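# nightly structure sweep
# worker-07 picked up a monomer target from the shared queue
# config: single-sequence mode, recycle default, output format = structure tokens
# input follows
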Amino acid sequence: MRILLVRHYKTLINLDDRIMGWGDAPRAGDWEADLLHVEATLREAAVRVDAIYSSALERARGTARYYARQRGIHLIHESPALNEVNYGELYRKPKKWVARHIPEYKTDPDYVFPGGESFRQMQRRSVAFVTSLQLCHPTDTLLLVVHAGVIRGLVCHFLGLPFGPNLKRKVSHRYLGELVIERDHCVHYDEIGVPSGFVREGAVRVPHLPEWTGAALDNVQRS
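# output follows
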């Protein structure tokens, strides 16, 4: 199974550097420029997408609809298992205020946010969902429209990286990550969009082949 990970469009709360979590916000004025950049990358790579999945949050659903229209795909699969971490009572709080008053923010993956959940809980539900997709898409290419926190959680899990030290890695709205998963294990990871903090800061070198086998990649549709 080949998974292409993209982040949702940019929102006004993203621009204001505030906590969003399970809340939502209107699109930023230049939201489409990021999606056009990712779409151009997909087309340049001649990627054929078999199915599109997104979180249940509107910013991800709206982004998924955009990519679906470009491909003539009429069905988008949505799941709250792919939602961003639930920050609970911190919705719309400035991130600088949160970092100052809650030292566990972006440092302790097991800290449960008031009225919400922990990064670890978010990681477990999203990993379980992605792993389950192998049952119905063993050789398909899937486009997953998710969130920065979910992307960090998936990358850390499938590449065997510690979660806590990587909670602050930057993930651009032009990020495009590629995971090839076979029998619950990642056999290939790459970034074909704007590099994330994982790559720019040297935590991961791409292409990353933790358990590479030629047969694994041969079984995945590459076009």
